[in-house]
Amino acid sequence: MTTDDSESATIDQAAAATASDSGDAKTSTTASADPNADVADLGYEQARDQLAAIVARLEGGSATLEDSMRLWERGEALAAHCQRWLDGAQRRIESMTSSGDTSDS
């Protein structure tokens, strides 16, 4: 299985979990947990690659409306996760460069 196939399978699994959670009012509270909770465990590159795959699928226009909505929701979670990674990296860089600036004075 290639990396693209693996990412597509992960996206499909997350979309299927969302479908099963939102389609049945009788689901238990454990079954209705956030289907995108796994996003928090992804590294930046993994999240970015999944997000790119979702964008490509949405732009392809072949997904049903329900699938498109699930993909969109996962994409939003992935984008927010990537932004948190980038914000953290920026803070680290700023803290390293600002500590270096005070020694020059």
From TrEMBL:
EC number: 3.1.11.6
GO BP term (any one): DNA catabolic process
Renumbered residue ranges of the record's region Disordered: 1-41
InterPro entries reported for this sequence: Exonuc_VII_S, Exonuc_VII_ssu_sf
Catalysed reaction equations from the record: Exonucleolytic cleavage in either 5'- to 3'- or 3'- to 5'-direction to yield nucleoside 5'-phosphates
GO cellular component: cytosol; exodeoxyribonuclease VII complex
One GO MF term: exodeoxyribonuclease VII activity
Stored Pfam families: Exonuc_VII_S
Compartmental location: Cytoplasm
Coiled-coil positions: none
Keyword presence, Transcription: no
Gene3D superfamilies membership: Exonuclease VII, small subunit (1.10.287.1040)
UniProt entry keywords in alphabetical sequence: Cytoplasm, Exonuclease, Hydrolase, Nuclease
UniProt biased composition (Low complexity): 8-34
Function: Bidirectionally degrades single-stranded DNA into large acid-insoluble oligonucleotides, which are then degraded further into small acid-soluble oligonucleotides.
Entry-linked HAMAP family: Exonuc_7_S
Entry similarity comment: Belongs to the XseB family.
Protein name: Exodeoxyribonuclease 7 small subunit
Organism of derivation: Rudaeicoccus suwonensis
Lineage, opening ranks: Bacteria, Bacillati, Actinomycetota, Actinomycetes, Micrococcales
